[in-house]
Specification:
The chain is α/β, with parallel strands linked by helices. The chain is built from 7 helices and 8 strands, in the order ααβββαβαβαββαβα. The protein has helices at about 1-25, 35-40, 80-90, 110-120, 130-145, 185-190, 225-245; strands at about 45-50, 55-60, 65-70, 95, 125-130, 150-155, 170-175, 200. The radius of gyration is 20 Å and the shape is globular. The model has no long low-confidence stretch (mean pLDDT about 95). This is Alpha/beta hydrolase fold-5 domain-containing protein.
Length: about 250
């Protein structure tokens, strides 16, 4: 009996080690960024790009006073969000995408603290994220309400424990596509967000086209191109950031 007990224990340990190794292999091999994302990481006369310790996009034609922190989606290469980050920086805002431990924002929801501390020149911060990144952005906003002035959710929603439905005078933008595999959860989350939340529904858009990476398991099939979906995302997000900047008197200064 003791021999069988030892064998069973060894089998359990081996199974656990295999499971842990499998998780780390999965986590450390995220959905890769497309070539367009790599191109967006190149600096030019309009935007200077820094790739360490975060992906930071700094406008070169103006002095940014508002910063936008974008948490990447779970199991997605953070570089996949470089194209929209660059376009927003061209509008005059500092934009920062922080890589996450094991490519999962769940393990570092307070990463924004480091970014804010590193940029004392920024007067107003807005935080946002895609998918899991958005959920963790809500968590940061809920636990650090004095540090952020707005929230942007790309195909995302908060956990019930992070509900901010009773918040007033706190702008929130939620964007999602009709073909998103998680659409039901996003729509049901309305009760967890402030009543004044601005909703933008992208007809024909899906989950993966919020970034520049390939198909995602469990997602729907988009009925519009990535370029079309990105244009809608950027227009809505830029309009929201302009509104927050105007509200706080920090419109981009030349």
């Amino acid at each position: 009996m003791r021999t069988w007990g030892k064998r069973l224990l060894l089998l359990l340990i081996a199974g656990l080690l295999i499971a842990v190794a499998g998780f780390f292999y999965w986590a450390l091999n995220p959905l890769p960024a497309m070539p367009e994302a790599e191109a967006a990481l190149q600096s030019d006369t309009n935007v200077h790009v820094e790739t360490t310790p975060w992906f930071t996009f700094i406008p070169q034609t103006s002095q940014p006073r508002l910063g936008f922190i974008l948490y990447p989606g779970g199991h997605v290469d953070p570089r996949a969000y470089a194209p929209p980050a660059r376009r927003l920086a061209e509008e005059g805002w500092l934009v920062v995408i922080p890589p996450m431990p094991l490519n999962l924002a769940f393990f570092a929801p307070n990463k924004a603290e480091e970014i804010i501390a590193a940029h004392p020149e920024i007067e107003v911060w807005v935080i946002g994220g895609h998918s899991l990144g958005g959920a963790m952005a809500v968590r940061f906003a809920r636990t650090h309400p004095q540090q952020v002035a707005g929230l942007v959710l790309w195909a995302s929603y908060p956990a019930e424990s992070d509900a901010i439905a009773d918040w007033t005078d706190f702008p929130v933008l939620s964007i999602y596509g009709t073909e998103d595999g998680g659409r039901e959860g996003i729509e049901a989350s309305a009760q967890l967000l402030p009543p004044e939340t601005e909703w933008v529904v992208i007809e024909g858009g899906n989950h993966a086209q919020f970034g520049w990476y390939g198909p995602q398991p469990g997602d729907g099939v988009a009925r519009i191109s990535r370029e079309e979906q990105q244009a809608i995302i950027l227009e809505a997000t830029a309009r929201f950031l302009h509104a927050v900047a105007a509200q706080h008197g920090v419109e981009t200064a030349p």
